[in-house]
User: Which sequence fits this backbone?
């Protein structure tokens, strides 16, 4: 075999190795990006009293610029009481990875002490009210309790470990009211949801009129609205527009009443006002 053929064989072998090596490296970095590039929530040890919630949130702010400013905790507890709890607090805007400690109020203690908490689901949502971005982390009650009560790192230690800037102040500029929904717990026989399609509970729903409210409560009479307006403090959550977009228009910074909005469906206006987490939707009933 001539020397040139051997040299070509060696060159070809090296080129193939190079291509395979590069492909493997790019796959590896792609996997790293997928695994480690995702926003990450870490529950931390609160240094203040028991209703403080401490957490760290890391994301690639160069790749995904955002103004994070709301933490929301939700409890879904169909097999205990309260059935559902939602609490949210806004805080100073953070534009890069951060850690903070927020006072959630007494409802946080109630959440941890809810009956049948171990069967419940807890959702921690870190969001940007300005950019309309939400990052949601869900876990079972026992895991949430374990992470909260077993957290080792404090906010200061987390910031120092990740070489993050200390951002002073965790005082909430807006207190968003806590909402709690209490209903009867589902009766025995294991964790089953009381829904109309569940044959175990079919009898409970058979007499319910189709168009009326739940459990046979007659539908409320509608009414006309004389005036509807938005007071300062809207956090642009979009709830009102989702409910009644003919009336409410949510912009990047606030909510507006559309010119010429229909005012004859008072029940929907009322529903939007009740859904507003900061209770800034006001209206008067036409006489
Ligand atoms: S529901 Fe309330 S806070 Fe949300 S966008 Fe409408 S007015 Fe603003």
Assistant:
């Amino acid at each position: 075999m001539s020397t040139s053929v051997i040299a070509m064989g060696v060159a070809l072998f090296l080129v193939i190795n190079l291509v395979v090596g590069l492909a493997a490296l790019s796959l590896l970095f792609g996997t790293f990006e997928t695994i480690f590039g995702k926003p990450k929530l870490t529950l931390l040890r609160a240094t203040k009293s028991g209703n403080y919630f401490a957490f760290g949130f890391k994301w690639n702010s160069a790749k995904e610029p955002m103004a994070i400013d709301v933490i929301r905790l939700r409890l879904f507890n169909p097999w205990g009481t309260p059935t559902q709890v939602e609490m949210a607090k806004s805080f100073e805007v953070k534009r890069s990875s951060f850690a903070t400690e927020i006072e959630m109020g007494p409802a946080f203690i109630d959440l941890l002490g809810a009956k049948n908490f171990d069967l419940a689901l807890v959702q921690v949502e870190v969001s940007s009210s300005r950019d309309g971005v939400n990052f949601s982390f869900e876990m079972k009650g026992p895991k949430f309790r374990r992470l909260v009560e077993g957290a080792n790192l404090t906010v200061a230690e987390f910031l120092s470990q990740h070489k993050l800037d200390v951002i002073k102040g965790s005082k909430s500029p807006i207190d968003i009211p806590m909402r709690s929904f209490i209903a009867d717990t589902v009766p025995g026989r294991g964790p089953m949801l009381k829904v109309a399609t569940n044959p175990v509970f079919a009898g409970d729903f058979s007499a319910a009129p189709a168009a009326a409210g739940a459990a046979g409560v007659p539908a409320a009479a509608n009414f006309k609205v004389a005036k509807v307006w938005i007071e300062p403090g809207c956090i642009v959550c979009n709830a009102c527009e989702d409910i009644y977009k003919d009336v409410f228009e949510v912009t990047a910074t606030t909510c507006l009443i559309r010119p010429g909005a229909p005012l004859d469906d008072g029940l929907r206006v009322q529903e939007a006002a009740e859904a507003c987490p900061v209770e800034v939707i006001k209206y008067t009933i036409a006489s």
Observations:
- The first strand starts at residue 40 and ends at 44.
